[in-house]
Amino acid sequence: MNSNAPASREGSRRIPVSTIRQFIGQHLTEVVSALVAVALAIFFAIQSPNFLTSDNALVLSQFIAPFAIFALAEVPILILGEIDLSVGQMYIAAPFFVTYWHHAGIPVLPSVVLSLLVCCGLGFINGLISISLRVPSFIATLGMAFALRGIILIYSNGAPTNPIGSHMLVNILGGWAWSEAIWAVGIAVLLHVMLRGTTFGLHIVAVGGNSESARESGIRVERIKIWCFVLCALLGGLIGILDGYHLGSLDPATDGLTFMFYGVTSAVIGGTALTGGRGTMVGACIGACVLGMIKNGFLILGTSSFALDLVTGMTILLAMILNVQIEQATSMRGPRGSFSRAVNLVFSIVTQRGKGKVRS
Amino acid sequence: MTPNGGTNGPAGVENVLRTEQLSLSFGPVAALKSVNLHLERGEVLGLVGNNGAGKSTLVKILTGLYRPDGGRIYLDGEEVRFRSVQDARQHGIETVFQDLALVDELSVYHNLFLNREYTRGGWFRFLRNRTMRAAASRFLDDIGIDIPSVDAPVAKLSGGQRQAIAVARAVRQENIKILLLDEPLAAMGAKETSLIIGLINSLSKKANISIIVIDHNYTHLFEICDRINVIQHGQVTVNKSLSEISLEELIEFMVQSFRRDVAAGDAK
User: What number is the ipTM of this complex?
Assistant: First the structure.
């Protein structure tokens, strides 16, 4: 084991088998989710000839993109072991902020920017209440969610309106059918680079993994957490404005909590731990794909809208049971229960040679 | 008052660190009552005391994590107030905490460089992972710490390896003047213990680093320390260099004082 340095230098040029195995070991839940997504795609493609068509690809992207953006927004906060329940309501409220500023006499683009700043401010308040005032973020952001809903209902008198904007701007922001998917991919790439490639991202994982150790290392734990709340609120507002233009109408009575929970569910399906410490943007996107395919696929199969929620719920549960059990089976705590043991057996057969090498 | 004329410090000796009547209470509990201690340049000072005597609290004050209620800290004769861990580090104080301050989820090299990452891209602070990884494995090889891979998450290492990483992280810094070790030898195997003891000894000899060690194993302390301070009930009660006290005397003193404490507790 003394030849560490040359080995790692070599490793940067060609990827050895052990690296692939290590990658699978570290990102097991993501890999499993991806397999689930592929399995779902195959299942729906066999069941219905309409699933794998270019028309449906567009529809599918419109299912997946919002889930993905909500999931991406939640991932840093979930890694920190917190949660932001208000992001869905931020999504509902943001386009109304734009109309508010526009009615106050400000042009469209500055109104959008101003509204996003307001969202950042509200996220900052979320952070202050849950971090500085030590109210659990679950309650703090739930309060924010209800307050936002109230504000928007009062402002709009409960009546749906149309989003405001010039034609070109609408196209850029969300009018084109594919624009939301493009935004989602763009945000995913940006946040992935942020989480994996910057000090900020490393510190998020450090704080989420062990906040006391992070503090002792001199990381400003509170600051990191508050910034993540700001980021989450900003993304929630951004997708709200996008979706407002995309749908062409704003309904103040829409239930934002459901959207938020789709995001959290996507993130968790994609391997983000609700207890904090781990999570990836790629996983969140995969989770969103799984969730989006479930919704879209069963619709195509002609499942009634009442049964759709039941099927969605059951599929989420199944996917999560699989995920948790596989993670349990392969974690160092050792397998518990017969299912875990079976999974562990399969996994140990697959990775046996690699493990022997590490121990020697 | 002259910088070196504290109640504890012998006049004329260069003190790199000195504290004066340091106190800190957590609510009704007085963790530190009045701590006067000094540390000479290149010296290894051992801190002993029962659990709850205030040793770790003292370390956390000196490292910038806690702010004292009262008292003063002098570094090289100048009064300092640490506003944060970063601040204390900039003054050359490095710490190995009792809980090691490692993040299990992160790789060995990310832990080694935590909050002192090599970055590029200015404000964005992109990580230079490849440089950090190479530097980490070179450094660990240099000081003789043997781990399977710097890419492995710290969670996969043994207790001794984790401790070695924590010590390595502290001594990696170039501006280090004072090293605080809070039970650095707990949970270590014989091999790692001798490695760390060797590391401490060579550091204090060659690099002019002053070290404060907290340990419950007095035999280890007598191997590495120049002087012993005993902390009891938030105060330094004994200050003796190794020529003035033997291992047996120290053990006898600790046992006696422990018995007195128990008797006092019974009397109440």
Answer: 0.85
